[in-house]
Amino acid sequence: MQTRYLKLEDYIRTGEISPADKAKIAEAAKVLAEGGLVAFPTETVYGLGGDARRPDVSRRIYEAKGRPSDNPLIVHIADPDGMRPLASYISADCRKMMDACWPGPMTLVVNKTALIPHETTGGLDTVAVRMPVHKVARELIRLSGVPVAAPSANRSGRPSTTTAAHCVEDLDGRVDVILDGGPCDIGVESAIFDMTGDRAVILRPGAVTREMAAKVLGYVPEEDKAVKGPLSAGEKPKAPGMKYRHYAPKAPVLLVLPEAEGFEKIKRIVAAEMAQGKRAEVICSDECAAFLRSNFDNAPIIRTIGSRDDRLSLAHSLFSALRETDTDDIDIIVAEGFSEDELGRAIMNRLKKAAGWNTI
Ligand code: AMP
Ligand code: MG
Fold first, then answer.
1. Cα 128 to ligand 2 centre (Å)
2. C-beta 159 within 6 A of ligand 1
3. Considering only CA atoms, which of 90, 83, 97, 80 is closest in space to residue 217?
4. What global pTM score does this model have?
5. What confidence tens digit (pLDDT) does each residue in 56-94 have?
């Protein structure tokens, strides 16, 4: 398949959709309406979109990603009214979360209607729904006139795509259109809340944080077990995707949990790996990088993802950094860990999964 690459030049430069951009978005929307696949930008990561109502389209999405078919897709809508036809019931808590956090980086799991086939939900009777805030995503969904099933636009198992170049790497020749709207702002996937029970449950931490949800709901939502640690054999996570290997670069990742001794611990661990003859690469904050550079005679490769004080910058650059390590000739990646509050929870969740829970 020949993939059409459409770049939204004016939007990337100005943040506004020009008439020329709009024509390209309309072209992509037509592809969606006709059952094609479009990779498109959102505020979290790039999505690989198709008509959520069509079993054949969902099957093509799984095929393009190489994704196991029991791992359900998130359905994207352009406005809150789009929820009605998808959800058989909207609880009071669910309505509160929609009102407070949409449009935005939050997905809500609700009981589905017959409009969404089991092919889209990985066989579940629930559906995950999100209304993104990204202007291009919203315009695309609106113009297509269909609910858009869109998992992250990466090949299954790889780090999520946060630029159109990542999408080309993973999906060129496998989708009809790649719509380039520049790099994603947030850089980690949406927070997922299960709204089907008495109380909301966090299935995946994201930029709508536990703290934010607690303010909206009046109680602190629990996290599903699969968020906290590896499941034992036979245990089923509520979000089926959480059981699969994720975000994995080619080299193994060792995640260094934050401790009071600060960067000394990271230096010690990197030095130990290098003493065993391993070629090490470090993914860390600017502050840690400065420390390592001035404390090593023979410093390892260091990839910085921003200041420790700027969580958004860390989230924004994380997946790019993980992807970029693939081109380096290394045996191990040592990653700096961060404290698990606010957006730090989502960052650490992705790092732990990239490390296959290999923490120290
Ligand atoms: P991605 O599309 O890569 O952002 O991954 C979507 C995530 O949403 C996966 O972890 C899925 O398991 C989860 N998900 C999608 N639909 C549902 C659902 N109906 N119930 C629980 N989790 C879901
Ligand atoms: Mg994904």
1. 13
2. no
3. 97
4. 0.95
5. 999 999 999 998 888 899 999 999 999 999 999 999 999
Q: Atom of ligand 1 at shortest distance to CA of 45? A: 4
Establish whether residue 109 lines the binding site of ligand 1, counting it when its CB lies within 6 angstroms of any ligand atom.
yes
Which tens digit of pLDDT belongs to each residue from 243-263?
Answer: 777 888 999 999 999 987 779
192 close to ligand 1 (CB < 6 Angstrom)? yes
Phi and psi angles of residue 326, each rounded to the nearest 5 degrees, phi first: -60, -25
Contact 352, 261 (CB under 8 A): no
Cβ-count burial 216-239 (b if 16+ within 10 Å, e if not)? bbeeebebbbbbeeeeeeeeebbb
CA of 242 to the centre of ligand 2 (A): 10
Calculate the CA dihedral of residues 145, 146, 149, 155 and round it to 10 degrees.
-60
